Structure of Reverse transcriptase:
Amino acid sequence: IRRWKTKARFKTTVLRKIQVENRHEILRHPSSDKCQKINFPPASSGKQWEDLSSKIVLKIDSLLGKSTLEHKLATFGDIVYQTCLDTFGTKQYQTKCPPQRSRRQLEMDTLRKQKRKLKKQIKAASSEETNGLLVIWRQLKARHSALSRGESARKKRSQTRKNQIRFIRDPFQFARQLFQQHKSGTLTVDREELETHLKKTYSDPIREIPLEETTGLVWPAAPRIKFASKPPSLQEVIAVINKARAKSASGPNGVPYLLYKDAPTFSRSYIKYYELHGKTSRSVKSGWLQTGCISPKSKIRKE
């Protein structure tokens, strides 16, 4: 049990470590809202990933050199992001063309304009011309109503088809969204009041006081396997990295886990710094900062 808990805790530590280093570019420049997304190659192009790995390792060795461990850990994520940005450039998004309107929708727009124009003519027309204009207006209205019913039926069929696809893809998520409240709104509380509420909710003032002995507790048997106190091996670190999704990014800079998977040279360089960090038990100041988003639980609440 202890071995399993240690591995689970180690997995969380490694993933958080990667996230902190990749997030350092954002934390060091708080004025920039978002890093530019990098145009990474597909996962199948192994040659480009190997070249990128070698380039990153060479740049890390040349720039960091014999600097302190804290400086290496603090600038590691910046060097990785900047090297990837210089190699592949930013991702260019194609502007989406507006959807083409169907003949029914175009005809409905034309009929709507004609009806509005006839309304103005009816108000300004004499009593002899009003009856004829009303007949024309009723014909346009009947045609517009028929087209509107057809358009409503089309939208209903399209929405039904989308709901069926969503339900087949994930039934539990679809059912949960039917009864889930909208999480939006604007917080009106002060910063001091909010921090006081968070501290009161998530802090424990008596955490350092030892618990009293409770009678009736069943003590588990002694562990049969000796607790492993040595640092994690290379295979364990690689196994933790391989469990993460390849194209998912560990931080706002957009560097995916694929870089750690398909670039063995870079992974070994990262693991070397991680082992040194584990032996010295020092923390980097960039890892102290955290980002978060606080929003009301429902649409109408403001607290």
